[in-house]
Write a structure and sequence with these properties.
This protein is α+β, with helices and mostly antiparallel strands. It has 8 helices and 4 strands, in the order αααααβββαβαα.
Length: about 270
């Protein structure tokens, strides 16, 4: 009876809330998005936040304005949480991407062979590739490794961190948003990887709020299986660790973007 009452209350809340609040609730309800709140502060795992990081994380979670943040960004635009997470000035969007890539690289390196960061793709010669495929001769992806899906086969991984409340994503349902970003990656690289590299390709897409796209979720489950066998640990514990590890590292770089120093490019 209590469960039914809770479900009815949740249904009523969602149906009487504004569109922005419903989206915020949906983002916070994604698998792993709230993992940082229920995790023990283990320093050796990187599961530690400073006092300000923890308070800012709560404010971001509940959409409460941050204290002590300038109202105007150094780029000249009005400052807000949403602006800070997409502003290119200061290099924080690159930092967020690169740190997630490096975290994933370190996890893969525990169990797989020939793990390479930013591998260069083989050049395109006479292959007939579909429209939208990148033809750059110096094209690189984020990570490659061998043995992920089958022994000796190579798999390429390309990382993306999106902000779900940016103008380009705001009106999209969450699943459609993730699928759209995955398809962009696959349009650009999949056929080149298959035809030229004779390898596998996995887009790894996460959101700044901690959500994980469907293909990245499937990738993590496969990685958890491999780590479980390698380390002789239970699969649920490994999967839980992976979600927490990625969530903490992403949260830290997200908070850096909100509070980080940006220098006016004209100075």
């Amino acid at each position: 009876m209590k469960t039914k009452m809770e479900e009815d209350r949740k249904f009523h809340l969602l149906n009487t809330s504004s569109a922005s609040l419903r989206r915020q609730i949906a983002l916070l309800s994604e698998k792993g998005a709230s993992a940082w709140l229920s995790t023990l502060p283990l320093k050796n795992c990187g599961f530690v936040l400073s006092k300000q990081q923890f308070q800012d994380g709560l404010r971001l979670r509940y959409n409460i304005p941050l204290v002590g943040v300038s109202l105007e960004c150094a780029c000249g635009k009005s400052n807000s949480i949403n602006h800070a997470l997409i502003c290119k000035l200061g290099g924080y969007t690159h930092l967020r991407h690169n740190h997630l890539r490096d975290t994933l690289f370190n996890l893969l390196d525990v169990v797989f062979k020939d793990v390479v960061k930013e591998p260069q793709l083989l050049p395109v010669t006479n292959e007939h590739l579909p429209r939208g495929t990148t033809l750059k001769q110096d094209a690189r992806l984020d990570i490659s490794c061998r043995g992920f899906y089958s022994a000796l086969d190579k798999t390429f991984i390309d990382v993306r961190v999106l902000h779900p409340n940016s103008q380009s994503n705001l009106e999209k349902p969450l699943l459609s948003m993730y699928r759209c970003h995955e398809e962009e990656k696959k349009t650009k690289y999949l056929q080149r990887i298959i035809q030229v590299e004779k390898a596998n390709f996995s887009p790894f897409v996460m959101s700044t709020t901690g959500g994980i796209a469907p293909e990245a979720t499937a990738f993590l489950k496969k990685l958890a299986q491999k780590l479980s066998a390698k380390l002789n640990r239970s699969y649920p514990n490994i999967m839980g660790y992976l979600r927490r590890k990625l969530r903490f590292e992403l949260l830290k770089t997200t908070l850096m973007a909100v509070r980080g120093f940006r220098r006016n490019s004209n100075v």
